[in-house]
Amino acid sequence: MKIFQVFMTAFKLGCTSFGGPIAHLSYFHDEYVTKKKWISAHAYADLVALCQFLPGPASSQVGMAIGLSRAGILGAIASWIGFTLPSAFILIMFGLGLSYFDVSHHKHWLHGLKVVAVAVVAQAILGMGKKLCPDKERLTIAAITSVILLFFSSAFLQILILILSGFIGIYFLQSKEEFPHDSIHKGKKTIGFIFLSLFFAFLFLLPLLRTVVSSHEVQYFDSFYRAGALVFGGGHVVLPLLQAEVVPTGWVSTDLFLAGYGLSNVIPGPLFAFSSFLGAVSSVSPNGWTGGILCLVAAFLPSFLLIVGALPFWEGLRKSQKIRKAMLGINASVVGILLAAFYNPVWTSAVFSPKDFALVIVGFLLLEFWKLPSWLVVIASVAISIVIYI
């Protein structure tokens, strides 16, 4: 019964939570803390703090953790399925629909999706920059990260920069943030150790398996698992990692990639569900549904293993000053990764004319200053693009 309650509550949130991860956390607080009282306000804030430390989609991990405390591991799974199902279904259906049509015949509104993605990412960078780079030291980390990745872009280089930024944070940055404390069901440390071991086992063994097994399914799972395992800062940061995996390999064209990313900002639910669209439209996928579900599970599996594995150890981890300082550096570097991705591929693949630039300005104005929801801005931008690009 509790598992069904967890699923239905998460499903309702998956159908109504527009606006990205920060907005999702507000919806979650209203539902889980205020209305249902499944968790206290302090315990909820504690979970949010933990999920900011971990790679992966923070809002989805918070939902999994609440499902875990409510109904065990099956509750965590039910929470993830409920929250992710609506957006994944829409994105797979959208991808399958595009697969039956020549993208060039729909270039006006598809281009509108790509252009409005520029405004959405710009707003995300600005918002994260204000929060994560409030001083000159962290601004410098972000700027250096961006410059390096603009000249030498690769997924492994991003990982190296994140690690180095963590060490810089330990030795040169100061953390004054105190996390609230309250009790929450965390599970046994033995179970946590098993799940953390599985996380690292998949991370290191999948690339080896990929080299010895000639299978597109293994390649998919490795690429999307690695992207989900190495993303700090939320859904928008997964964009450059996924782009590096699927576009240069020829699995997904740049047009389809940005069209799907634009749509994922219209619909409710986690931005990581974008992985289901990429699996559905991949040129080497034997079946759209199979590819979509496989990539979706691979992208979210790391966050599931991490949240179940980390909760039993969080009490000690949250007290470590070095961990807090490392995260300051890592989060600043995340802003730099976003900034580099903003130029390539987001800007370079969408803005070609004064009309494009004008649409970006209007979209950014509506998002940042008029505070309109992103789904409404995307719909309006697509409608405008159909008119101005004819």
Largest sheet: none
* Total domain units: 1
Name the shape in a single word.
globular
Low-confidence stretches: none
Give the termini distance in whole angstroms.
Answer: 54 Å
Taken in chain order, the helices and strands follow as: HHHHHHHHHHHHHHHHH
Rg for CA atoms: 20 Å
| Number of DSSP helical runs | 17
Q: What is the arithmetic mean of pLDDT? A: 83
Beta fraction of the residues? under 5%
Structural class: mainly alpha
Share of residues in helices: over 70%
Total beta strand runs: 0
Subcellular location: Cell membrane
Protein name: Chromate efflux transporter
InterPro entries: Chr_Tranpt_l_chain, Chromate_transpt
Family: Belongs to the chromate ion transporter (CHR) (TC 2.A.51) family.
Give a brief description:
By secondary structure, the protein is mostly helical. The protein has helices spanning 2-16, 21-35, 41-53, 58-99, 107-132, 136-151, 155-172, 189-212, 216-229, 238-246, 254-264, 274-281, 288-310, 314-317, 321-347, 354-368, 374-388.
